């Protein structure tokens, strides 16, 4: 995520801000132009979820909508009177807004399910939900179980599942990968998909059952970004897609900060990064990937000096690089056809 600036005094603004700390003006995020604007006559004001402290996006004056494009995707949300679940919804909404920003940057369609069958909806459910649903995606509905927002619970699950990384933003990025799969491959590119990820017609239920019973193959890291990605081509897709979004977002941040890296050692090799650029404007994925390697090595080293775990605890094998490059190409192709 880039750093924004105040339309009034040009001071730095961060994505979740509603006020400029320098000049005090009230601000909101304009999802059409992807920048901050003053809350003024040109705008009817904030999205309805602003009242609940959940959103800082703006609705234009002429619009009939009461919710912004991110909040309009919500289908089931906890009641404001349901204290515990409501508090858990907040961090999920923060993560979801960051996801939606990135989908807008990538030029992907965002149609609420209430407007079209093939649209998208989010259900944020308590763990005691009637349908016994779990975090996941089905037919355009992304369900997130609210207890994921409890960091202790999430860490327990992370250990239990032997995952290197488990975050709210990571969940959103994974599940949205499932949602966009039919859009990108239903009528096109299916052969290419199968070349990189395997045949998705393989029995999904049986594959997952087998994965949980016997675990991933010993050498999974030669072909997959995570052990779970080895369970089925769809999960490989969603996991690799999530990593593509991780790389693009962190590099956008680095680019907007004007970061460059020049380690003081004789052979800095892959640690050296010339000034980072906005990855959404880069055609050649190799440039994005090389910068990401330097950046994650630097960020991991910074975290270690704070006694924290690595922010990017993954090693990307050559085969995984090819899959990421394929995702970059597919998205470029999609934008070309749809703009
Ligand atoms: Zn200002
Ligand atoms: Zn909103
Ligand atoms: Zn999945």
UniProtKB/TrEMBL annotation:
At the top level, the lineage of the source is: Bacteria
Tell me which InterPro entries the record gives. UCP012641, Zinc-ribbon_6_bact
Stretches assigned to coiled coil: none
Domain (Zinc-ribbon): residue spans on this chain: 4-81
Q: Which Pfam families does the record associate with it?
A: Peptidase_Mx (PF15887), Zn_ribbon_DZR_6 (PF10005)
State the name under which the record lists this protein: Zinc-ribbon domain-containing protein
| Biological source species | Kriegella aquimaris
């Amino acid at each position: 995520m880039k750093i924004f600036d105040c339309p009034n005094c040009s001071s730095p603004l961060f994505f979740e801000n509603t006020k400029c700390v320098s000049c005090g003006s009230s601000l909101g995020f304009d999802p059409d132009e992807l920048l901050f604007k003053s809350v003024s006559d040109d705008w009817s004001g904030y999205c309805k979820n602003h009242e609940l402290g959940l959103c800082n996006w703006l609705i234009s004056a002429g619009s009939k909508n009461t919710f912004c494009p991110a909040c309009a995707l919500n289908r089931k949300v906890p009641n404001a009177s349901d204290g515990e679940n409501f508090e858990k919804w907040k961090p999920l909404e923060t993560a979801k807004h960051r996801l939606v920003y990135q989908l807008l940057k990538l030029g992907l369609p965002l149609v609420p399910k209430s407007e079209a069958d093939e649209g998208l909806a989010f259900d944020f459910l308590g763990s005691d939900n009637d349908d016994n649903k779990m975090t996941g995606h089905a037919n355009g509905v992304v369900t997130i179980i609210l207890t994921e927002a409890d960091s202790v619970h999430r860490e327990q699950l992370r250990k239990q599942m032997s995952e290197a990384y488990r975050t709210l933003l990571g969940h959103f990025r994974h599940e949205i990968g499932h949602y966009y799969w039919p859009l990108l491959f239903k009528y096109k590119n299916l052969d290419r998909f199968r070349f990189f990820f395997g045949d998705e017609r393989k029995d999904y239920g049986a594959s997952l059952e087998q994965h949980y019973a016997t675990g991933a193959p010993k050498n999974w890291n030669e072909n997959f970004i995570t052990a779970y990605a080895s369970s089925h081509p769809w999960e490989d897709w969603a996991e690799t897609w999530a990593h593509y979004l991780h790389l693009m977002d962190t590099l956008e941040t680095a680019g907007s900060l004007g970061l460059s890296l020049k380690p003081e050692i004789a052979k800095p090799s892959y640690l050296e990064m010339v000034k980072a650029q906005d990855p959404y404007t880069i055609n050649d994925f190799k440039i994005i990937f090389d910068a990401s390697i330097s950046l994650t090595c630097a960020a991991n080293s910074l975290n270690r000096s704070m006694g924290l775990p690595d922010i990017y605890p993954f090693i990307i094998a050559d085969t995984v690089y090819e899959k990421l490059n394929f995702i970059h190409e597919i998205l470029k192709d999609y934008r070309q056809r749809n703009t």
